[in-house]
């Protein structure tokens, strides 16, 4: 899209920066990576009142320009390098008005970089409830910048913010004149000459961070290293001195600005709820009850829309076979692409419901409490409290959760978190679980209000989390390191969920699921259809002769099942069938047949491809006249040698355990390599998870069969 100016959103974590980004850009946004690194880059576009088009970049949250993690280091890199593609014309610093002094520390640092800046005081409605009043005009006068009071959650103050962005050309200079730089004056002056700048604070920051900055040459970095050595530049002491000086300066700025009316003492609603929700006993009981409700809802609420989608695809396939000309292209379209895609689209209601609940739990502030409660348990198993966030994020997808482990400073804790995060059941496993549970678990209520299928689904998630924690315990003994880690987090106050944000999350996640999974499914379905429809010519010729002879005998019993039997035999002798039979001896002890073996191979591209593979295989096997739903086809599937049902409780449970533990996702392998910069860790991960999946499935099947 055409852009006239570039805006960067900067702020502390949990200040509503991402909510403001969504308000400004709506659906007109995209997510990529910052150049050369695997840190998420959220970019969107909005229109300003004067008709200008603005590109908005949402930078990672940080408490100061001194980074504690890889994500935080991006902020200064973007603001420092004018050649960076994300370098802004204007910075909008989003500050939590209920904790203004701490938020203004980052503001004062950014302002000293001499980039035009607007200060957005967010959570104005929350401040009012807490009895906090801020004299915005007086603060604006003292800081010398435009300040806008907003409430991103209630969409208040957005027009005023856009107007302020239009009018912003002024550079704030409020922090010059403090004693921030006095301890490194000579070093700063020499650094200014090397990097060709007249900005004292920019030079100071470069002296602190030059090793991680790509915008300086090796010669410049060597000169800066020499300056640090000559002047005994102690980065830790100088950062501490700067922080103290800035807080002293901000204390004077805020004098008479912030008023406490006394309502804050009465506003202890969150504290009262926390006494129950974070209780060492009742907290976990309530959390389990919430999980019960979520997984019951996933099955109960999605039943009708899933049935509607399933019937629609069945009708579409029947209609296509009845009205399209017979031939290879029609079969490829209907039995390959439509069947494979239908196996994915049917699960959109369940994916949408899952992400709706995750969004509500995050929006209300409850997810932070879950993280806090789990921290106590995680430490007993050798993990840092900071590992909780990536592991909870894995309920959605392992890829971003592994990337979020960058915030863990301890190398050992970070590696263990990366190694066990894929064990936590992600949303891609949900279609596999629900398909298999629907086959073997009856749709009935326990005690009149608990859905048995939902209870089984919750059990699979609990099994995956327990497995991740136990594997982490083993790895904590195998991986040695000296660092110690600490877990510090802010508890957000409880708030009502923003329903428009919940709906937006449902839409975005469902769209991502269909688009990302759909691309893989269609590709696999086409390849699989070709492999399942064709085979060695001599084998297919023998099958054709065999069934031609049967038809010539005019045996009415055999002719009635002729087409179905012929399709089944051709599938077994196709290239896909040959591949499946090749691995069948290894998977037969798990209760799997050669068709499931094909699905295990194809679903390495994406776990949810299992469903599309089953749909394609059974569509090819069934023939044109046998159009039924994938669940009906799998329910009727029989072992060729015994005639017994394939998908019994033992086989289905064994298969669910295999998918719960196996590394069935090449994207996860790729991101682990990218994050660790070594094939060693994804290799170990692939081996141990495959072995764990095989052993768990073997034990389950042998005990239950």
Walk me through what this model shows:
- The chain has 705 residues and is of the alpha/beta class.
- Helix content is 61%, strand content 8%.
- The protein has a seven-stranded mixed β-sheet, with helices on both faces. Strands 7-9 form a two-stranded antiparallel ribbon. Strands 10-11 form a two-stranded antiparallel ribbon.
- The longest helix has 35 residues.
- It is elongated.
- The two termini are 59 Å apart.
- About 3% of the residues have low confidence.
Q: What amount of the residues lies in strands? A: 5-15%
Please state the average pLDDT score.
79
**Largest beta sheet: what is the strand line-up?**
2-3-4-1-5-6-8
Tell me the distance between the termini. Answer: 59 Å
> Uncertain spans, ≥5 residues at pLDDT below 50?
33-38, 173-179, 263-267
Search tags:
705 residues, alpha/beta, elongated, two-stranded antiparallel ribbon, 7-stranded mixed beta sheet
Secondary-structure map:
Elements: E1 5-11, H1 17-25, E2 29-33, E3 40-47, E4 53-58, H2 70-80, E5 90-96, H3 100-111, E6 117-122, H4 124-129, E7 132-134, H5 136-143, E8 146-149, H6 158-167, H7 185-195, H8 200-209, H9 218-230, H10 235-253, E9 258-260, H11 263-266, H12 269-277, H13 282-300, H14 303-323, H15 328-345, H16 348-364, H17 366-380, H18 388-393, H19 398-404, H20 411-420, H21 430-440, E10 445-446, E11 450-451, H22 452-478, H23 499-533, H24 537-553, H25 556-560, H26 562-572, H27 575-587, H28 594-602, H29 609-622, H30 630-636, H31 649-661, H32 666-676, H33 680-704
């Amino acid at each position: 899209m055409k852009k006239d100016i570039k805006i960067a959103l900067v702020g502390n974590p949990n200040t509503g920066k991402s909510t403001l980004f969504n308000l400004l850009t709506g659906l007109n946004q995209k997510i990529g990576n910052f150049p050369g690194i695997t840190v998420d880059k959220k970019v969107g576009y909005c229109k300003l009142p004067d008709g200008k088009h603005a590109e908005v970049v949402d930078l990672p949250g940080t408490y100061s320009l001194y980074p504690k993690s890889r994500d935080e280091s991006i902020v200064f890199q973007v603001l420092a390098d004018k050649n960076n593609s994300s370098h802004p014309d204007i910075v909008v610093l989003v500050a939590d008005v209920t904790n203004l002094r701490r938020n203004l520390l980052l503001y004062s640092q950014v302002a000293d970089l001499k980039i035009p800046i607007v200060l957005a005081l967010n959570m104005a409605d929350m401040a009012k409830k807490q009895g906090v009043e801020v004299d915005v005009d007086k603060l604006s006068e003292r800081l010398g910048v435009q300040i806008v009071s907003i409430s991103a959650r209630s969409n208040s103050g957005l027009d005023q913010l856009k107007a302020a962005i239009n009018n912003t050309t002024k550079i704030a200079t409020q922090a010059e004149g403090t004693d921030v730089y006095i301890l490194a004056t000579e070093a700063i002056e020499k650094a200014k000459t090397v990097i060709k700048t007249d900005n004292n604070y920019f030079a100071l920051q470069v002296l602190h961070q030059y090793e991680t900055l790509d915008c300086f040459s090796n010669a410049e970095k060597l000169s800066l290293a020499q300056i640090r050595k000559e002047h005994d530049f102690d980065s830790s002491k100088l950062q501490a001195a700067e922080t103290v000086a800035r807080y002293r300066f901000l204390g004077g700025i805020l004098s008479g600005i912030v008023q406490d009316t006394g309502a804050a003492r009465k506003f202890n609603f969150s504290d009262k709820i926390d006494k129950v929700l974070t209780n060492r006993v009742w907290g976990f009981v309530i959390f389990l009850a919430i999980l019960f409700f979520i997984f019951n809802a996933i099955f109960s609420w999605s039943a009708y829309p899933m049935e509607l989608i399933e019937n629609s695809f069945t009708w579409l396939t029947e209609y296509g076979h009845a009205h399209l000309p017979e031939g290879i292209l029609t079969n490829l379209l209907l039995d390959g692409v439509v069947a494979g895609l239908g196996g994915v689209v049917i699960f959109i209601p369940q994916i949408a419901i899952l992400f709706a609940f995750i969004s509500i739990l995050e929006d209300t502030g409850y997810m932070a409490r879950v993280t806090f409660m789990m921290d106590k348990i995680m430490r007993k198993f050798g993990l840092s409290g900071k590992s909780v966030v990536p592991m909870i994020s894995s309920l959605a997808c392992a890829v971003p959760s592994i990337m979020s482990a960058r915030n863990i400073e301890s190398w050992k804790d970070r590696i263990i978190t990366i190694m066990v995060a894929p064990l936590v059941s992600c949303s891609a496993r949900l279609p596999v679980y629900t398909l298999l549970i629907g086959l073997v678990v009856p749709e009935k209520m326990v005690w009149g209000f608990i859905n048995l299928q939902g209870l089984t689904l919750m059990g699979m998630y609990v099994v995956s989390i327990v497995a991740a924690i136990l594997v982490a315990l083993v790895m904590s003994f195998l991986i040695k390191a000296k660092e110690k880690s600490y877990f510090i987090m802010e508890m957000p106050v409880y708030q009502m969920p923003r329903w428009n944000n919940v709906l937006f999350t449902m839409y975005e996640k469902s769209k991502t699921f269909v688009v990302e999974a759909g691309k893989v499914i269609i590709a696999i379905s086409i390849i699989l259809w070709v492999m399942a429809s064709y085979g060695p010519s001599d084998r297919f010729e023998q099958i054709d002769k065999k069934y031609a002879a049967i038809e010539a005998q005019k045996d009415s019993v055999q002719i009635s099942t002729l087409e179905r039997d012929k399709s089944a035999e051709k599938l077994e002798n196709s290239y896909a069938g040959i591949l499946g039979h090749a691995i069948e001896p290894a998977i037969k002890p798990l209760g799997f047949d050669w068709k499931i073996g094909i699905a295990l191979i194809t679903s390495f591209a994406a776990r949810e491809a299992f469903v599309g593979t089953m749909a394609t295989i059974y569509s090819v096997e069934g023939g044109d006249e046998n159009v039924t739903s994938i669940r009906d086809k799998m329910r009727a599937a029989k072992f060729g040698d015994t005639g017994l049902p394939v998908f019994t409780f033992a086989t289905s449970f064994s298969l669910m355990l295999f998918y719960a533990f196996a590394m069935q996702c090449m994207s996860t392998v790729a991101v682990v390599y990218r994050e660790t910069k070594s094939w060693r860790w994804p290799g170990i991960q692939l081996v141990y998870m495959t072995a764990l999946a095989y052993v768990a499935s073997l034990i389950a099947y042998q005990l239950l069969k």
